[in-house]
Amino acid sequence: MLHRDLRRGVCLIWVFLIIVLSCVNTSYSFALLTPINSFRTTSALRSDRESPEELYAQAAALRAELSELSPISPIAPPSPPSSTHRLSVSIGREKNTWMSRRWSSSGVRIPFTLDCTFTPTSLLQSTPSARLRSGYDSLKTEPQSYEYNPKTSALKFSLNVLESYRFRDCEIYATPLLFAINAYGPRWYENVSSKPGTVCIEQWGWNTGFLRKEKRIVGTFYVEEIDERVRRRDGF
């Protein structure tokens, strides 16, 4: 009897172990097959979509359509009509200038006027010479281009002085005069600031800590559209 019970117990243990091992193998096999099945499913979905060659062909066709369209040009500031203005310039020592200490140290100034025209072609046309000392003397100049920036409302232009002019310790050098003043709105050529602008020249110097071309203030100026009031005031 004892041997029979032992045999029966051993058989039951083996049956239990076989059942447990079969369950473990089944779950392990399912875990291994799950990524494979998911990969097969994903591959099947991808195969239903468009191939890379078809996508490349569509992209090439789209690029060809875009290249046929005309490019969008940036909005440029409106060009002015040919309107004549008068520059009333005063050359002399200004506060915080980097000019040499001897230049215009006495406080004497050289005023002159110049008529110019802002044309749609961005060229500054002026009379052949500036009027010095109410027209008793002249200063030969050469017109340069101008530039208007609507973002900063800055109007910049330059005049090339062809010959120097000296009065006491104040001198206008034979070098380009750089003008800068504010102007506002789409019709900026009609809304130039009534406040004075600055006149600068470029000279080599060490004021910034190293040798470079510096902009040095040499005077101020006003811009006025020529009308009967301006002609009566200046006498010409």
Mean model confidence by pLDDT? 78
Number of E-type strands? 11
* Structural domains: how many: 2
Q: What is the radius of gyration? A: 43 Å
Strand order of the largest sheet: 1-2-4-5-6-9-10-11
Distance between the first and last residues' Cα = 145 Å
Order of helices and strands: HHEEEEEEEEEEEH
Largest beta sheet, briefly? 8 strands, antiparallel, barrel
H/I helix tally: 3
Give start-end ranges of low-pLDDT stretches.
28-47
Comma- or semicolon-separated keywords:
single chain, 236 residues, alpha+beta, 2 domains, 8-stranded antiparallel barrel, two-stranded antiparallel ribbon
Could you describe the 3D structure shown?
This protein is an alpha+beta fold and 236 residues long. It has 2 domains: 2-68; 83-234, no CATH class. 30% of the residues lie in helices and 35% in strands. It has 3 helices and 11 strands, in the order H-H-E-E-E-E-E-E-E-E-E-E-E-H. The protein has helices at residues 2-48, 52-68, 228-234, and strands at 83-91, 110-118, 124-126, 129-132, 137-149, 154-161, 165-167, 170-172, 176-182, 197-205, 212-225. The strands form 2 sheets. An 8-stranded antiparallel barrel has the order 1-2-4-5-6-9-10-11. A two-stranded antiparallel ribbon has the order 7-8. A hairpin with a 5-residue loop joins strand 2 (110-118) and strand 3. The longest helix is centred in the N-terminal third of the chain and has 47 residues, at 2-48. Residues 28-47 have low confidence and may be disordered.
